[in-house]
Amino acid sequence: MIKPGNFLVLHGWQNRRPPGHWQRWLADELSARGHTVRYPQLPDPDHPCLAQWISAIETDLAAMSPHQRVVIGHSLSCVAWLHLARTASAQLPVHRVLLVAPPSRDFLLAEPALASFADPPRPSPATTGSETAPLLICSDNDPYCPPDDYMEYSPAFTINLIPGEGHFDATAGYGDWPSLLRWCEDPRISVGARRVAVLPPANRVSVVDAMD
What we know:
Elements: E1 6-10, H1 22-32, E2 36-38, H2 50-63, E3 69-74, H3 76-85, E4 96-100, H4 105-110, E5 135-138, E6 158-161, H5 178-185, E7 209-210
Parallel strand pairs: 1-2, 1-3, 2-7, 3-4, 4-5, 5-6
């Protein structure tokens, strides 16, 4: 029997948690399967401030049960997490971290609204914010980060490069992601490209859902 977990799902730039995005799908599926899920709207997603995002993430971490906390970030929130992870935050470490498609330094510097996020520290095994080996999911044709830039995350992260999947967003067809859902419940599962899969029925239990 799968034990209920505690998940924090963090979105990226200009993302207002729309229906049809894989993170919304994942939060809904995890909640239905009996897990506690927090999927907050981070401050001012069109013109984000790094300090405000870090503060908001820390607030959500503090509100979570300390048992088996798992953080799943996409795009700009990956960079915010790296900045937070180098601090001496009392909310760190969490049990597991999975980051999907962080943007490159060059992209951040080219966007005035994202300048405060540029130059995140190169992660080391001690500065990932995770008790266990963290995972980075990326692709070879992401318009916001060339593949070579992901090497900055090695060896602190296990890097899973999935060819041809773009930015892992709605444009790339990521409205659901069954293998990621399976990884959430069993970290031994390999996260692959989105594909149709049949999952066992959810066992609904009492859930604290902080998606609003």
